[in-house]
Amino acid sequence: MGPLRIKRYGGRVYVPKSTSPTVPQVQPQRGAVILAAALSATTNQVTWIYEDSKDTSGMIDLAELLFNQHHNATRIFLTWDAASWHRSERLSDWLDSFNFETRVRNYGPAVELVPLPTSSQFLNVLEAVFSGMKRAVIHNSDYRNTDEMKGAISRHFSERNAYFKENPKRAGKKIWEIDFFADIDNLTSGNYREW
């Protein structure tokens, strides 16, 4: 996600009727924050890291972090959208060699990629988590520097993870409960066909 510029952001705010809050359109550059994150569909826990740029190396770092966190599992499935850094040849080559080493050492889970179809952001539950984070942390904010914004984002995700540890709930309730393709004749829109 990102880059999120360090600037003054607008948002919903309670003010007297006689005033109207304004946000300058042109603001000095104070830095930017880029983060890569993963959401466990079963535990609803967010894992995140901060990156210098949006590229394949960030996805590799995130995959290694998830591998280390879930070293007792047999497989890790990573689903993500059709961004260019998600489907790069470098990532594919790294994943092949990483899984080969995992099999040779007989330690840790295999990492498998499950790309989502193009233009299907609604299937990516992490997008909803990002939206909630932006509403809670970014909107109507004015952070002084990147460390301050990173601290607020980390605090938000830590509190969210603690909440879902105390109140377990799977991520993506609607996706688990609805069978989109149960009645294919009644799909009102979309490009779904019986093959």
Mind explaining what this structure looks like?
By secondary structure, the chain is an alpha+beta fold. It has one domain: 2-Layer Sandwich (Nucleotidyltransferase, domain 5). The strands form two sheets. Strands 1-2-3 form a three-stranded antiparallel beta sheet, sandwiched between helices. A hairpin with a 6-residue loop joins strand 2 and strand 3. The mean pLDDT is 87.
Proportion of residues in extended strands: 5-15%
- For the record, the CATH architecture stands as 2-Layer Sandwich
Mean pLDDT: 87
Helix segment count? Answer: 5
The helix/strand order is EEEHEHEHHH
Task: Indicate the percent of residues in helices.
Answer: 25-40%
Name of the CATH class: Alpha Beta
How many strands, what sense, and barrel or not for the largest sheet? 3 strands, antiparallel
Query: What is the alpha-carbon Rg in Å?
Result: 20 Å
Shape: globular
Unreliable spans are none
Taken together, the total number of domains comes to: 1
* Secondary-structure class: alpha+beta
Q: What is the third-level CATH name, the topology?
A: Nucleotidyltransferase, domain 5
Strand order in the sheet with the most strands: 1-2-3
* CATH level-four homologous superfamily name: Ribonuclease H-like superfamily/Ribonuclease H
N- to C-terminal separation? Answer: 36 Å
What is the number of strand segments? 5
